[in-house]
Amino acid sequence: MSTAAARAHAAAQSISKVETFFMAHQAAVSQTPAVADFTFGNPHEMALPPLVQAIKARAEPQDVNWYAYKSNESEACALLANVLSDELGLPYEEEDIALTKGAFGAIKMAFTMLLEAGDECIVPLPGWFCYGSMLAAAGASEVQVPLASESFDLDLTAIAGAITPKTRIVVVNTPHNPTGRIYSRAELEALAELLNAKSREIGRRIWILSDEPYRRIRFDGVGFTSPAAVYPHTLIDYSYGKILLAPGLRLGYLAITPTLPEAERNELRELRFAVQMADGWNVPDAPLIYALPDLETLSIDLGALARRRDHMLGALSDWGYRMTRPEGTFYLWGRAPGGDSQTFAETLAQSGIYVMPGTIFDRPTDFRICLTATDAMIAAALPAFRAAAEVRG
């Protein structure tokens, strides 16, 4: 008889590949120090100075309530409603915004709000590797649906085939981790049409969770359409950890689409506080809330990120790698030479070059590179990529 709840074991099973990889990676780096670590989206340079200045300034209390309990503070939510209205072209109001501990917190909040035990949530494959464990902890099931094999577009036929009477949420991650794909308005409109039809067919509303933490990291002037613009039954999660390259700064939000039918919109608005409390006071720390006006204006150097993308993409393509050109995010995704990403990653690791094998994404033929590396790291790593291509190709 197990001591822990079955859902805890299910969450552990879902995240086991990531846990195993992380522990093995830590051990490997201790044996062969990293020349270039392209695994996770961690910073490799000091934090943006204005970010540090803003947090320092807001850490200094200005009254006795500075560090009192916080919730969805009116000033911060009003600011974000205005930002989202301008950015997405939708009439957000402050009551549509819930401040959360990063996108993790926003996703958790969406699952708590919408899912009953036994519900199903459709997620993209390849895709972010934490949806499954969070769903298991909520007593729901992850249903992985492959993206189109070459373009990584949404595969509407596959999504339609995966929908059952238990389907409650379809996750749309745009820009997409790990491929960098950004979905067009036409694709999203087609998805909306499908979900409207399927909702009528199964007799319950299917929602979209639009996972948008990379929304502002885009290249080559590519535009962005949120699913919320074409499908009212959409919740948006967002994190500042990506655009600021500060994943340890747990600041984000969940946004309720303002074009929802009034009764449904009001119901979700009224549930914000209760759900945040039930999720463990899922609200950012006070200094981060105060710093929001400053942090909202900051960004990593997207021009430098684009140059790094082009540098690595050009070199790897010249050496025969089959890479996907990302339209957004800070990742490169491609086919491992020889089609075995685990062996490929192990080969690179012998030289202190670390990449994420596609086994983490249930795509063992592919691999991911995180471009948050410095120029010097990339320059030091490229000879090993060339050598690996010659050996494995």
Automatic annotation (TrEMBL):
GO molecular function terms noted in the UniProt entry: transaminase activity
Family annotation (InterPro entries): Aminotransferase_I/II_large, NHTrfase_class1_PyrdxlP-BS, PyrdxlP-dep_Trfase, PyrdxlP-dep_Trfase_major
EC number: 2.6.1.-
CDD domains per record: AAT_like (cd00609)
Domain Aminotransferase class I/classII large: 39-382
Claim: Transferase is one of the keywords in the record: yes
Classification via PANTHER family: ASPARTATE AMINOTRANSFERASE YHDR-RELATED (PTHR42691:SF1)
This protein's name: Aminotransferase
Species annotation: Rhodobacter flavimaris
Lineage: Bacteria, Pseudomonadati, Pseudomonadota, Alphaproteobacteria, Rhodobacterales
